[in-house]
Write a structure and sequence with these properties.
There is one protein chain. The chain is mostly helical. Among the domains are: 150 residues, 3-Layer(aba) Sandwich (Rossmann fold), CATH 3.40.50; 50 residues; 123 residues, Serine Threonine Protein Phosphatase 5, Tetratricopeptide repeat; 56 residues, Winged helix-like DNA-binding domain superfamily/Winged helix DNA-binding domain (Arc Repressor Mutant, subunit A, Orthogonal Bundle). It is built from 43 helices and 7 strands. A 5-stranded parallel β-sheet has the order 2-3-4-1-5, with helices on both faces. Strands 6-7 form a two-stranded antiparallel sheet. Helix 5 links the parallel strand 3 and strand 4.
């Protein structure tokens, strides 16, 4: 019996060699082996690795088998020609029998399992060939298994095989590389490829292996072809030569459209059965990839579409876009109609269609990104031509935190006053007040003005303008949380939630749930927050679309809960998912993802990576033209949190004092709506910096005041953190109540599920030493190493004293630094003394 991994018996030829830079696909190999089906059918366009996967599968066989590999090369063979190839492989004569019987006789009674590979089975075989294979499958020879790669599903009795459990089929979506395999291939072919080009290549090819290889071959510095388009040559030989002229011309046209369907094709080619033409392209596996699970909408694979677009004239492409535009608008698919109008060079029509979008459109799918992209392509005169267009753009800019642009949009609404009737005049003014109220709230410079505008807007907005009504209620609730009156938030949210439900808007219900979750987090009701978060995921799941904006925000809030509970791996997964979705729709809420990653890196002692996350956050905000003060404060705050974990307290106080000035005096700012605890957390860090610099009395005064404020606001989690900082300060001042205060705070943190605090603050007894009964931050060995470090011993001296190697001492030191959130041993000693880990 062959050893595992040994190539099976092949007679008389060998298996084809695997391609250079082969990327193994063990999951698919296991999938092919999981079901002992008589027929394994791999049906996909050219270049999806069908033959390579069959090769890899056969190489993985551990039992002795006879492999007969027939490369049919897509040629329409007669049964007699197939028999001749098979007989030549077996070194036997063709039996003098009818073709179907001769085929069965050649394959029967071999004394061992037989794998017959029909590689690249023809798409248009003679009827006799299909009938011959069909009869072979119907007889079900017990030792025979077929592996067939094909670009068009053959006309065999596949339903019978499926019902009998004798068919295992893989299509293009299953054969496509996943992102990890894509990266493996790029790394082997062109390891110096930039991250931007890798991302572009992934978006263009979507796991199409051949597309990646051909693209990178053209870009390779050693390529003698320079910028020769290998992809076009490949498509000529492997796709277009197999299509009729009519089918090829249809494909050239579809390459210009973002999505296609049989109905759209019928509309575009009424005189030549467009629907049938499209169905033939699908059957030919002409790289029309499904966009939905119902098989209604498709699009030409982007890399293929890009290579084929030049095949029709610009005038023909314009006529195509206009025709598609009419069809999309008739079907109510406004976004697609707008895109087609822009492609056809008809911005007036695009602006006209833009006015038809519904009130919740902005918050769904990736529509925010679409609006921002259209703004860059439409003339400003058109965007400002009607109040409705101005309002739509203003709301999009507010959601994007591009407040200066939003303010300019809102100001231009005044150009449309007065309106012809008093009713329309009042409606326009109410919409202006709603926009201005939300803008003022986001700027955070005048609480009273924000509340005034929102409340007056609510008084005059008509019931059918429910979107600005909901934004006003949400802003009032968020202003209440950010301005020190959180008890006022709940009534606003309750009223808004009722309106959203009456309108049947799942999107706005989830948007308001995000505000409710924020309020629960402030109060420390983490269990209720998690339940509401899960309910919100379920609500979004009821929609057929993928709502990236809402899903991204939900995942980022989920990550925050994971961080509170000290579940770093789950937090990182949620942060990555949320960030990806936020990027897709250009949602500035991505800022929270970068903040979370920076916090996660700092907890792991990866301080350089933490700062890199913060720098990337700032870069993204710049690129998206986000108003500076919407992100600068929280970035500075998170930067100070990283510094605190490093023990670099001397750098914290100047930053904290600069931030504090914004929230003091007669013209003080309100906290950012998306980070209502910013000024309070800034004070906490400032007090801790004072303590670390030896000014414990100053720290005590600030922490006492801060604690009273947090308790009055019922910000329970933050009050816990302040109590722990105050207990540390009392330890430094020698107060007898220090241990009791710390014990009470840790017990409350434990009840709340704030494992992150329990990790950062070990429980201390009245003598200031760590309470072993409650578990400590450092192991006994780590504490011994730390004690010797504090006494000035070198690594070699510590190793000799504790009878361990120098490398082991270094390992312990790294773990101590990581657990204490510092970089250097001197910082570790200082931090340990503050926590009572050293006597």
């Amino acid at each position: 019996m062959p050893r595992h991994g040994q190539t099976p018996h092949v007679l008389p030829s060998r298996l084809p060699r695997l391609p250079p830079a082969h990327v193994p696909r063990p999951r698919l190999v296991e999938h092919l082996a999981a079901q002992d089906a008589q027929l394994r059918l791999l049906c996909a366009p050219a270049g999806f690795g069908k033959s390579v996967l069959i090769n890899e599968f056969l190489r993985a066989q551990t039992e002795p088998v006879l492999v007969i590999w027939l490369n049919l090369a897509g040629q329409a063979l007669t049964p007699e020609q197939l028999l001749a190839q098979l007989a030549a492989e077996l070194a036997e004569n063709v039996p003098a029998l009818p073709a179907a019987q001769a085929l069965q006789q050649l394959l029967a009674h071999r004394g061992e399992p037989v794998w017959l590979v029909l590689d690249d089975y023809p798409g248009h075989p003679p009827a006799g060939l299909d009938d011959c294979i069909d009869q072979l499958l119907a007889r079900a020879l017990p030792d025979l298994r077929l592996l067939v790669s094909v670009r068009q599903r053959p006309a065999w009795n596949l339903p019978r095989l499926l019902l009998a459990g004798e068919l295992l089929e893989l299509d293009a979506t299953q054969l496509a590389f996943d992102r990890q395999q894509h990266e493996q291939l790029v790394e082997q072919l062109a390891p110096r490829t930039s991250a931007a080009l890798r991302e572009e290549l992934w978006q263009e090819t979507e796991g199409w292996c051949a597309g990646v290889r051909l693209h990178l071959s053209a870009k390779a510095p050693t390529s003698a072809s320079g910028n020769h388009c290998w992809l076009r040559d490949y498509l000529d030989h492997e796709l277009l030569n197999r299509l009729s002229p009519e089918e090829a011309n249809c494909l050239f046209a579809l390459a210009h459209l973002p999505k296609v369907s049989a109905e759209l094709c019928q509309h575009l080619w009424e005189d030549s059965d467009g629907a049938g033409l499209f169905e033939r392209l699908l059957a030919r596996q002409a790289f029309c990839m499904p966009l939905d699970e119902h098989g209604t909408w498709y699009r030409v694979l982007p890399a293929v579409a890009r290579a084929l677009r030049h095949r029709i004239s610009e005038a023909a492409a314009t006529r195509l876009h206009l025709s598609a535009c009419r069809m999309f608008i008739a079907a109510g698919q406004v976004e697609d109609a707008i895109e087609q109008a822009l492609c056809a060079g008809q911005p007036e029509a695009a602006a006209n269609y833009l006015e038809r979008l519904g009130q919740e459109w902005l918050t769904g799918e990736q529509h925010l990104a679409h609006l921002l992209a259209w703004r860059a392509r439409l003339p400003a005169a058109l965007l400002e031509s009607t109040p409705r267009l101005l309002s739509l753009n203003a709301w999009g800019l507010l959601i994007s935190w591009r407040l200066d642009e939003a303010e300019a949009c809102i100001a231009k609404l005044g150009h449309f006053l007065p309106q012809p009737t008093a009713l329309r005049n009042r409606k326009l003014l109410a919409n202006w007040q709603a926009l201005h109220g939300v803008l003022t709230a986001l700027r955070g410079q005048s609480v009273a003005n924000a509340q005034l505008h929102c409340r007056e807007a609510l008084e005059y907005l008509p019931e059918h303008d429910w979107m600005p009504i909901l934004f006003c209620y949400s802003s009032l609730a968020r202003v209440a949380m950010a301005s020190g009156a959180p008890e006022e938030a709940q009534p606003h949210l309750h009223k808004a939630l009722e309106i959203a439900r009456r309108q049947g808007s799942l999107l706005f219900e989830v948007l308001l749930n995000l505000d409710r979750i924020r309020l629960l987090l402030l109060r420390g009701e983490f269990g209720r927050a998690q339940t509401l978060l899960e309910q919100s995921f379920a609500l979004i799941g009821r929609r057929k679309q993928v709502d990236s904006l809402m899903l991204g925000r939900l995942h980022l809030i989920q990550a925050e809960l994971h961080l509170i509970a000290d579940r770093p791996d789950e937090a990182e997964r949620a942060l990555r998912t949320g960030l990806e979705q936020a990027h897709e729709c250009q949602d500035p809420f991505a800022l929270h993802g970068f903040l979370g990653l920076a916090e996660l890196r700092a907890r792991r002692g990866q301080f350089d990576e933490a700062y890199q996350e913060l720098r990337e956050a700032e870069r993204q905000m710049h690129c998206r033209q986000v108003w500076r003060y919407a992100y600068s404060g929280v970035l500075n705050l998170q930067g100070m949190r990283v510094l605190a974990r490093q023990g670099r307290w001397e750098r914290i106080e100047p930053v904290a004092l600069r931030i504090q000035r914004y929230f003091e005096g007669d013209c003080r700012w309100m906290a950012p709506l998306d980070y209502p605890t910013l000024p309070l957390r800034n004070q906490l860090l400032l007090a801790r910096a004072q303590l670390e610099s030896g000014r414990a009395e100053e720290a005590e005064v600030m922490l006492q005041t801060l604690l009273e404020h947090c308790q009055a606001l019922q910000f329970v989690p933050l009050a816990c953190e302040v109590q722990l900082a105050l207990a540390t300060t009392w330890h430094a001042l020698g107060h007898a109540e220090a241990s009791q205060l710390q014990r009470q705070a840790l017990e409350q943190a434990e009840r709340l599920g704030m494992q992150c605090l329990l990790r950062d603050y070990p429980r201390c007894d009245s003598a200031g030493s760590v309470d072993n009964d409650q578990g400590s931050l450092l192991s006994q060995r780590e504490r011994a190493v730390l004690q010797l470090l504090a006494e000035g011993f070198s690594n070699q001296e510590i190793g000799g004293y504790l009878f361990i190697s120098v490398n082991t001492v270094k390992t312990h030191t790294k773990k101590i630094n990581s657990k204490l959130g510092v970089k250097r041993r001197t910082q570790a000693v200082m931090r340990a003394k503050t926590l009572g880990l050293l006597v």
